[in-house]
Design brief:
The protein is of the alpha+beta class. The chain has helices at 46-63, 100-105, 134-139, 145-168, 212-215, 221-232, and strands spanning 6-9, 13-17, 23-28, 31-34, 39-42, 70-73, 78-82, 85-96, 112-122, 131-132, 171-183, 186-189, 198-202. The structure holds adenosine-5'-diphosphate (ADP) and uridine-5'-diphosphate (UDP). The site of uridine-5'-diphosphate has 13 residues, from strand 8, helix 2, strand 11 and strand 13.
Length: 242
């Protein structure tokens, strides 16, 4: 499948149309951003590592019964996905307090959240992705009520699957962000699941293995993402081309 027109270029990926109106190509770039795009760097090999990581996780989720947009890997930095009508809302689940919830609520980083907590954010970089609730989503028409319920249920279902998967690699899934979209009326998991959009800590040392390494200038960002993949059994073998 060939790229046709660039549809959108985001902070980390570019999105292309294909000859099939229902399919898009996601191109994972090396660009790495934090703080709503205020800190941007190019990290060598990150596009490849995240593309492979995302494919691995999306396949695990599909095996576990989660409907996703992912179709197949096309090359080191490209994946074929179903074209979704994206819902402009980010769904975040937190198992352990870290990041913005600590600042917002003054809670200590590292405390267990039992039950895990859920937050919605509006996808709007200019406004710093503000936190919103279900009433905002309904009042402003960002998604239908049944789709909101589905996104919440799927996000929690993903938590059960991935918490266990990362635990097998001796890692704690601290928190993560998911995006969903509609495909022929059905809510599918879209975008990506990579260490750019979640927090992962080593179970024994609680060392940060995710994008906080970039946010906090801890170094070895891509090396760490790769280590996470390898701990899950991802070999990063070259992608077989058509
Ligand atoms: P951002 O837009 O947050 O800077 P990216 O650089 O990752 O993020 O850009 C990817 C864009 O593609 C995002 O806006 C995301 O919502 C969108 N997207 C992801 N998956 C799909 C899909 N299957 N169909 C349509 N758009 C998608
Ligand atoms: N996240 C993301 N994109 C965003 C905002 C958050 O992928 O635009 C992820 C982030 O990496 C973390 C989780 O969602 O795993 C919760 O993020 P938080 O609200 O703590 O914000 P942060 O302090 O990370 O900006």
């Amino acid at each position: 499948m060939e790229k046709r027109q660039e549809l959108y270029s985001g902070k980390a990926k570019s999105v292309y149309t294909t000859d099939d109106a229902d399919k898009l190509i996601l191109h994972f770039r090396n660009d790495t951003s934090a703080f709503d795009g205020k800190k941007i760097e190019q990290l060598e090999r990150k596009g490849m590592v995240n593309n492979r990581f995302n494919a691995f996780i999306m396949e695990k989720l599909a095996e576990a019964g989660i409907a996703t947009h992912f179709e197949r890997l096309l090359s080191d930095q490209d994946s074929l996905v179903k074209r979704l009508d994206m819902i402009p809302v980010e769904c975040v689940v937190r198992n352990i307090a870290a990041g913005s919830i600590c600042k917002r609520l003054g809670v200590e980083e590292g405390i267990d959240l039992e039950p895990p907590t859920f937050e919605f954010f509006l996808k709007d970089d200019e406004r710093g992705d503000p936190m919103i609730n279900e009433y905002h989503i309904r009042s402003f028409g960002w998604a239908e009520t049944e789709h909101v319920e589905k996104m919440k249920a799927l996000t929690f279902e993903v938590n059960g699957i991935l918490k266990q998967l990362f635990l097998q690699g001796n890692m704690l899934l601290v928190d993560y962000k998911l995006e969903f979209g509609l495909f022929k009326g059905e809510v599918l998991l879209g975008d990506e699941f990579t260490p750019d959009g979640c927090r992962l800590w080593d179970c024994d040392t609680r060392e940060k293995l995710d994008k906080d390494r970039f946010r906090q200038d801890l170094g070895d960002v891509v090396e760490s993402y790769e280590l996470v993949g390898r701990r899950l059994g991802l070999a990063f073998d070259p992608v077989a081309q058509d």
